[in-house]
Amino acid sequence: MVIKSISNEKVKFFRSLLTTKGRKQEGCYVAEGANLVKDIPASQKVKLLFVKESREESFRDITDAFSAEKVVLSDELFDRVSDTVSPAGIAAVIEIPKSAEISALNDDKIIVLDHVSDAGNVGAVLRTAVAAGYTSAVLLGCADSYSPKAVRASMSAIFKIKLCFCDNSAFLCSKNIVKYDIMVLDMMGENIFNQVPRGKYALVVGNEAHGVSDDIKAVGRKLSIPMAGMESLNAAVSAGVAMYLLERNQFKQ
C-alpha cells in the first residue's frame, strides 16, 4: 500500500522525529539517504524504513537487508516530509542507543565536545573522530547529535562511535577522567605542534563563540593551533586538525 496522506499515523511519527521533542519522547531518530541507510550496522535497531514510491525497486537491495517494516510513501508525500532539499527517497527510523557511562570509558583517547552548539559541527567532529581512530565521544550540553543535520554531517560516524552524554560536573568528577591528560583547544594555549599526549588523553573542543568552559580549562592544559592572517578556525576544523596533530606527535616519539 502506498501512503499518500500526511495525516497517516506512521507519517506523523516520522515527522515527530525531525524535532528534538519528538526524538526525546520516542527514543528514535531518522537517518535519511541511501548511503546512510546502507551503512547502518546490525547493532543498530531499525524500527521502520520509509521509501519513495518511484524508488522502491531501486532501493530493494537496501531494504531487503533489514527486517524492519517498509513504509512506501507517494513521491509527493515523501518530498514533503523529508528534511533534505533533494530527497534521495529512503530513510530509516532507528532507536537511539543508551548513552555510554562516563565511568565506563577506558579508551586510549577520547574526543570531548563542550557545548558545541551547531549540529553540523557536532556531526562533522564525530565524522573526523571516527576517521582518526576515536571510538568514544563525550558530549557536554551540545546540539542534538541525533538531529537530521548532525546525522547527515556525521556521514555514518553516528553508528560507529560510542556517545556519552553528561554535564561538566559529572565529566570532571569522574574517577575515569582524572586518569586522562585533558588537552583543551584554546587560542591562548601552547603551540600544539610541540605537544605530546601524556598517556591516555581527552581532547576538548569548545563552543563556537565562547570556547571551552572555564571549569574544564582550569584542569586541562591549553593548546592552540598556530594561524597566520586569521584569528580562529571553525570548531569542527580545529578539532580535526588537533586530532591528527596529536596522533602524529605521539607517533613521532
CATH architecture of the largest domain: 3-Layer(aba) Sandwich
Strand order of the largest sheet: 8-7-6-10-9-11
Which bin fits the share of residues in helices?
25-40%
State the total count of DSSP E strands: 11
Present the secondary structure layout.
Layout: E1 2-3, H1 9-16, H2 20-26, E2 28-32, H3 34-38, E3 46-52, H4 60-63, E4 69-73, H5 75-81, E5 90-95, E6 109-114, H6 119-131, E7 136-140, H7 148-154, E8 162-166, H8 168-173, E9 181-191, E10 201-205, H9 214-217, E11 221-224, H10 235-252
Helix pairs in contact: 6-7, 6-10
Can you tell me about this structure?
There is one protein chain. The protein has ten helices and eleven strands. The chain is of the alpha/beta class. The strands form two sheets. A six-stranded parallel sheet has the order 8-7-6-10-9-11. The longest helix has 18 residues. The N and C termini lie far apart (62 Å).
Write out key terms for the chains shown.
five-stranded mixed β-sheet; 253 residues; 31% helix; 60s Ribosomal Protein L30, Chain: A; 24% strand; six-stranded parallel β-sheet; alpha/beta; Alpha/beta knot
